[in-house]
Each structure stands twice: as C-alpha cells, then as structure tokens.
Amino acid sequence: MRPRRPILASIIGLVMCATSVLAQTRTMLNVSYDPTRELYKDFNAEFARMWKEKTGQTVEIKMSHGGSGKQARAVIDGLEADVVTLALAYDIDAISEHAGLLPKEWQSRLPNASSPYTSTIVFLVRKGNPKNIRDWDDLLKPGVEVITPNPKTSGGARWNYLAAWGFALRRELGDLAKLEDPNAAEAVKAAQAKARQFVTDVFRRVPVLDTGARGSTTTFVQRNIGDVLLAWENEAFLAVEELGKDKFEIVVPSISILAEPPVTLIDKFSDKHGNRDLAQAYLEYLYSPIGQRLAAKHYYRPYDPSLVDPEDLKRFPKLELLSIDTVFGGWKKVQTEHFDDGGVFDQIYKP
Amino acid sequence: MRRPFKRRPGKIPGFPLTMGITITYLGLIVLIPLAGLVLKTAQLSWSQFWTTVIDDRVLASFRLSIGASLVAATINLFFGFIVAWVLVRYPFPGRKMVDALVDLPFAMPTAVSGIALTALYARNGWLGGPLSHVGINGAFSRFGIVIALTFIGLPFVVRTLQPALADLESDVEEAAASLGAGRLQTVRRVVVPAVLPALLAGFAMAFARAVGEYGSVVFISGNMPMKTEITPLLIVTKLEQYDVAGATSIALALLAFSFVMLLVINGIQVWSTARTRA
Amino acid sequence: MPGAVALSLSVGVRPGTPATRDTSLTRWVLTGIALTFLGVFLVLPLVVVFTEALREGIGVYLGSFQDPDALSAIRLTLIAAGVSVPLNVVFGLCAAWAITKFKFRGRSLLVTLIDLPFAVSPVVAGLIYVLVFGRQGWLGPWLAEHDIKIIFAAPGIVLATVFITFPFVARELIPLMEEQGLEEEQAAMTLGARGWTMFRRVTLPNIRWALLYGVILCNARAMGEFGAVSVVSGHIRGQTNTLPLHVEILYNEYSFAAAFATASLLAILAIITLVLKTAVEYRVRRQMELSARLGDKS
Predict the structure, then answer these.
(1) Fewest 10 Å CB contacts: which of A312, B182, C10, C89?
(2) Of chain B residues 28-87, which have a CB less than 8 A from chain C?
(3) For residue A312, what are the contacts with CB-CB under 8 A and spacing of at least 6?
C-alpha cells in the first residue's frame, strides 16, 4: 500500500485542517438507532450545557442514526462510537462478541439492565380508526394492511414480532405462568404453534417491509399505505405530534411487550479517544432527573417515574407489558430461534 | 510490467511511466479490493457458498433484479429507439435542450432520483394517484422498480443509438425506397439490422447498470423479501445482520455476472467494429 | 476500440434526403411519443424535486442550507469530488497514453478492467473497502494499531468515490487519442521536443475538450454517489455525511421539505452539468471530426 500513503496522508491532513478549527472542544460519538433522533438532539444540548458548567469544557456530541442492527454492524467494522444507544441488548452483545470492544457483562454496569428508559409497541391508525382496530387479533380482519419494518434488520420490528407472538401465547394459555409449568408442556406446545400461525398471518398482511422503523413510519404516514402501523410508542406519538393530530390516532392494545433499549460505553473506543469520563457522565446523565424528564418529553417511559413530572406520565397508557426474559427466555435465545438465518421468521416468511 | 512486443516507429516516450501508473492505480483501487472480496468468499467451502447463493430468498432477488432489469432495458430499447430517431432525424424547436436532457438520469444523484420517483409514484403522488385508480401500485411494487431502472438506463440506449443512426448512409434507405419498399419495411429490413449492434450494446449497458443499481431503487421498491427485494439490497441486509459470509457470496455472484456482462458488451462492440470495417 | 461503456457523445441532426424523409404524420406521432416519454420519465421527477422543496415556502427552503450539518455535508462532498477528480484525471491521462500510443499484449483486457467499476454494483464497491479496511478486514488490525481511520471517515468516502468514478476520464480520452494517432507527436519529436514538453504542447491541446468532458462527468458522479458511499460512511451527522446521504437522513426525519431542498441543490448541479456537457460536447465532436479528417488525408 506504499504508493498510496502520501495521498492518504494528504487526505488525513486535509480533514484534520478542517476539524482543527473546532479544536479545544471535546467531541464524542453516540451511535444510536432510528427513532431516538429527537430525544438525543435535546438531550445532547442539555448535557453539553451541564458539562460546560461543571468542567468548563465545550463538548460536541456527534450522532449517527440507523437501523439498530446496521449500527451495531458499523461499530463492529470500526465506526468508533464512544457510546452506543441501541434498540435491543442483542445488538450490543453482538458488538462484544464479534469485536470484543466491551466486556460481556456490560449490561450490569448501569441501573435497570442499562436501560434508562423503556418503551413498548402500540398501533398507529388513521383518524377515526376506519377499520376499527382495537387489539392484536383485529390485525387479521379482512382487508387490513399492516405496516412494520423487517425484523431481520430493525430492532423495533423484532419487538413488534415478539409482542404479536406474546399476545397469541397469552390468548391460548390464559396465564403465561404455564410456560414454566412442566405439566402444561403439551398445552404450551400447542399454544406456541398457534402463536406462530398468528404471527405468520400478521406478516402476510404486510405490503411494504422497510429496513428501519423510520422507513415504515414514512411509508404509513407520508405515502398513505396500510391501515395500521406497528410502532414504537414514542414513534407513534411523534408521528401524531409532527404530522397531524387530525390524521392519525394511537390505539393501545390489551397487551404488548416491554421494550428495553439499552445504552452502554464502548470501552475500547472511548479509552482510545480519552473520553471515558465524558462518556460515562453522558450515560449517567440519562438517569438523572433531567435525562428522565427529557426521555418522558420524547415519549420514552422513564425508568424511575418518581423523577418526572406526574403530568408528563399521564400520557403513557397503562397496559400489560410482557417481559422478553420471562416469556421468551432472553435475547440470545430469541435471536437464534426466531431471527437468525433459517430461524422461525425466515420459515414463516416464505410464500 | 509487460514489455511492448511491438512499438510503432518513432519511439514515443513515456510507456514505462504511464503504464506503471496505470497498473499501480488500477491495482490499488480496483483489483486488490476486488481480490479481497474473492479471497473472503474463498474462505467458505464450495457447498457453503452454493447453499447461500441458491437460497430461495437470494434466488428470488436474482430473478427480480435480472427480470426487472430486462423489462426496463426492453422498454428503453423501444422508446430509446424512438427518442434517438426523433433526435437524429427531425429538427424541431428545443431539440438541443431535449437532447441535453437525455443525460439527466446520469447526472442526477441516484438518491435524488429515488426520492423524486417515489414522491411521484406513491399513492398520493401525481402519477401514483391515477395509477392506483386503475389498480396499479406505482411505488413499493415491482412496477416501481421497473420505473426506476428504466429511468437509470435510458441514456445508455439513446446515446449508443444516436451515432449509429447518424452514420447510417442514406443511399441504402433511398435504394430500398426506390425498389418500392414501404417506409416501415425499410426501417424494419434496412435500418434496424444496420443499427443492431448499437441497439444490442445499448440494451446490454442499460441492463448491466440496472442489475447493480441501488440508490434510486431502494426508496421506491418496498423492500419485501421474496417480492420486491433487489440483490444489492439483499447484500446490504445480510451485512447488517452480521452475515458477512452471506453478503460476500452474493456480492461475488453479482460481480461475476457484471464481469460477464462487460465481456458481452465488449464482444458486441468488437463484432460491430468488424462489421463496419467489412 | 472495444469496450466503451461510457456515454458516447450525442450527435447533431441528420434530416436525410427526400426519399428517406418520413411523412409529417409519422413525424408528429414519433416526436409526440418521444417527448411524452421523456416528459414523464425525465421532466416530471425533476419538477417534483423543486415543488416538494418549495412546498413550505422559500424561507424553509433557504433555511435548510444554513443548517451546520448541511454545510458540513457540502464540504465533505466537495472534498470527495476535489480529491477523486484530479486523481482520476492523472490516471486517465496515463492510461489513455499507454493504451493508445503503444501496442502491447493484453491491451483489450486492460481496457475491460478499466471499465469494471462501471459494471460493479455500487453496494459491492462499498463492501470491498469494508472487507479490506474495516476493523474485521484484511488491513483492519494494522490500521487500528497505527490509528489510521479509513472506513467511516473521509478517506473511505474518497476511496469509494474514486472507485465509482474511476473509468470516466480514461474512457473519454481513449477513443479520441486512438483516432488522433501518433503523427503529431512524431513530428514534434523529429523537431526535438522531449516527452513532457511534447505532451503539454502537442497532445494536451488536442485532447483538452475531451478531457474537460470527462472531468464534468466524473465530477457529477463523484458528487452524487450514494450506494457505495452509504456503505462506508457510518452516517455521522456533521462529519461523514455527503450531500446525497444528507438527503436520505432528512427524508427519514420527516423533514421532507429540507430533504427535497438539499435534493434540489444536487438537481441544480445536475442541470449545470448537463449545460456544461452540451457546451463542451460540441467542441469535442469538432475535434474528433477534425482528427478523423486529418487521418483520412494521411
């Protein structure tokens, strides 16, 4: 590669010149998933203000957004994130496993399994709910088109898929405690088969399968396709706020899934940039009253509701939330069983 | 470094220098990275490679990419011929502007074409609305993919045809006309065979470009596995799922296909040159 | 000369003789079909870009260019084009010189290889650089050790752009220099001119318009590349986003007006490209005809 070095050097030099104007400011990179754009825009400004007050340093936080799996892949290939804030723990596990950039037990480093906020999956329908969609089984009504992203690439879509699965399981079994009961093994097996059929039927009704949650929202909202969008709760709220209360409404199903988008420090990269203190403070600030309030403002459910103005909490409807660990046995199992190549999703998504 | 086996008289200087730069640069930018792809795939066993490539979803994407590209290239062949014919034969006001416009798909960034075509053909778009009344989904369907690929391929057909049509000696046509051939007959029997190499070359180029196209298609296609998922998108999807082996296998298959297409195009051009000289 | 996958030049009108002229009905119908087809396929998308961009008023339109992220995207796009165009000019000149002034074995293979980036899917182009320079790639560990960032930084974007625009200049020069042959250079040599002087005084003036033409095409493609750049960019706002990637980001943020505003900037660049191209094309054609005529005489 020798002959290219001078060229490379000059390119690097050029870029450094461009960035040196901004010298004296500390920069760090947060690699995040699709629907957090608005949250982190606010949060970063707030954090930078706090950090300046506390230390006198100016800090600039760079953001990169995309599908959760895609973002994790980029970090594995060398996108030098100081922190990642992704849609699901599995993607961060993958970074640890494939690239060894952070310890395996990263999830125990911050409170609430490293999820400063949680969310869930709700339905977004067109104003007046013309197809009268109230719960998961209404998705299978004749003529209903369902919009969801692709579970293979989108974290949100995996939650959608699991929420539907969980609903069907619960309907068949009545009580999910039976999953643990050895005497009910037959019933559980039958219920799992029913759930699989239910999810298969739901995905038969998807006319457009985007790669990320944002793409699906655009398809539903902007392109006017489909009758119901399976969406992150915050994404649904945002769509209603940004794009018209007169056009869409949110429907909360009887049961959904507890989505826990985790955050963590990427040890190797933040150490390399000398940013560990900054990155650590950044993540901890998400758990502070201000961080929690901003999360609630952007329609994420704060992990500690006591820190947030009760008024802000009212907007979150109460519904039964299934935990992925108790119902599905954790992300590792879910990923290999359902979403890896040749897994259940691939099997049911063959016409 | 290859030595020239025969130099023309006069000893023009600079062969080692220019050839050296050419080979080095070609190697560094194109050949070594492409070899990296081949090597990476070579780490798989033949059966691993084969199972990846003949997986239903991958095959469906190949069928779609190749099928849609063929349809688009055929549309371009037909309309491109008419456009080239009109631009070469008929002087009309604004001809120069129209002529310049033909290259728009080439000059326009693919992402811009992608969002513009999507806005146009979506159900609430200018053309998508009327189309949906007659039961056609403009965007997010195979129809949309063909539209995008037609857009991308148009300049290739028109630009290869134009010189061929212009070079056509009018005396052949005149002779055919004087022998009592009708106009349509003349065009079919005389003009089309004469520009056939150009037609084929333009078709092949539009086709080759369309098979690999990503930016403009990804916005409009809908990206449904098995239905509207093109091969380049499948490569990106595999990559995002931590499946590098799968991505490189498909990429290699696509690369091999591109290379064969390139050889076909070159073959057509050699044939056409030989034919003109004869 | 085999292998021109590049766009050939458009040509002037050749109305034909009376016997081969079409009836006016045919002319009207064909012209109508051609214009409708071009109108639907080319003009409408262009119009849509500008209508969507101006939908929320001129204020929003202009405002979207003051966003620091947009400015940084413009800067990076200019850097990518600014590095890749000169590199490909030097390469194009060298390749065309070696290929057209000398005969050697494997010449047509070389031409095919130069064409290769045309046929390779942009996505594959991005992928190969990830495989070579990515952290898990061939040179990954070495690069990490020496703290050189290529993928997800400006160098990776420049490399992907160079790859995509690789053949443009060479492809425009080769047919012309082939046509021009060696006579002028040989004459210059008998007059005692040395290599560099001869190139500057004799060859360059003969090919300057074709060179410019190649530069225009190369530059248009460099500024507009999406697929390959998207794979190697990392999408860091204000840092590794080029203009086309910025369009995608805005589009995904419901900022449709801003997305189309940025898109319109690129569309204007495309139109400028077309205008320049048309202007230069005329001169290239003349140069080509001139050398063809000279060739016939000798």
Answers:
(1) B182
(2) 29-34, 36-37, 39-40, 79, 82-83, 85-87
(3) A293, A296, A297
CA distance C247 to C256: 9
Most C-contacting residue of A5, A11, A237 (CB-CB within 10 A), to test interface: A11
- For the segment B265-274, the average pLDDT, to the nearest whole number, is 82
Chains in contact with B, where contact requires at least 3 CB pairs less than 8 Å apart: A, C
- Asked if the C-beta of B104 comes within 8 angstroms of chain A's C-beta atoms, the answer is no
- CA gap A31, A329 in Å, rounded: 27
The mean of the pLDDT values for chain A is 88
d(CA B32, CA A8): 17
Helix (H) / strand (E) containing A231: strand A228-232
C12 secondary structure, DSSP code: -
Q: Which one of C19, C35, C132 has the shortest CB-CB distance to B33?
A: C132
Q: How many residues does chain A have?
A: 351
Q: Environment class of residue B99 by beta-carbon count within 10 Å: exposed (0-12), middle (13-18) or buried (19+)?
A: buried
Q: Residue C19 and residue B208: Cβ atoms within 8 Å?
A: no
Q: Which residues of B touch A98 (CB under 8 A)?
A: 242
By CA distance, what is C97's nearest residue in B? B18
- Which secondary-structure segment (H or E) carries A27? strand A25-33
Report helix, strand or coil for A284.
helix
Query: Are A350 and B226 an interchain contact pair (Cβ–Cβ within 8 Å)?
Result: yes
Kindly state whether B241 is in contact with chain A, defined as any CB-CB distance less than 8 angstroms. yes
A99 within 8 A of C271, measured Cβ to Cβ: no
Instruction: State whether residue A65 is helix, strand or coil.
Output: strand
Nearest to C236 among A29, A98, A221 (CB): A29
C136 and A98 within 8 Å at the Cβ level: the answer is yes
B221 exposure class (CB count in 10 Å sphere: 0-12, 13-18, 19+): buried
A224: DSSP letter:
-
Span A226-269, pLDDT tens digits: 999 999 999 999 888 877 788 999 999 999 999 999 999 999 99
Could you tell me which of A217, A235, A308, A263 has the C-alpha nearest to residue A89? A263
| Window C:181-210, CB contacts with A under 8 Å | none
Are C20 and B174 in contact, with CB atoms under 8 Å apart? yes
Task: Give the Cα separation of B107 and C217 in Å (integer).
Answer: 7
C119 within 8 A of B212, measured Cβ to Cβ: yes
CB neighbours of A271 closer than 8 A, spacing ≥ 6? none
Checking DSSP bridges between strand A248-251 and strand A121-126, what pairing results, if any? antiparallel
Does pLDDT of C1 surpass 50?
no
The structure tokens 């594995």 sit at A76
Cα maximum dimension of chain B = 71
The ipTM, to two decimals, is 0.86
pLDDT digit string (tens) for A182-220? 888 889 999 999 999 999 999 999 987 887 888 888 888
CA distances from C195 to A312, B11, C87, C88, C199 (A): 77, 11, 21, 21, 6
Residue B56: how many CB atoms within 10 A of its CB? 12
- Whether C162 and C88 have beta carbons less than 8 Å apart is answered as yes
Give residue for tokens 């798989």.
B44
Separation CA B276–CA A142 (nearest Å): 63
C124 CB burial (10 A radius; 0-12, 13-18, 19+): buried
Burial class (CB in 10 A: 0-12, 13-18, 19+), C294: middle
Give the predicted TM-score (pTM) of the model. 0.84
Q: In terms of Cα–Cα distance, which of C203, C196, C200 is closest to C180?
A: C203
Distance CA B217, CA B233 (A): 9
* pLDDT at residue B203, as a whole number: 93
B166 pLDDT above the threshold of 90: no
Q: Does B213 touch chain C (CB under 8 A)?
A: yes
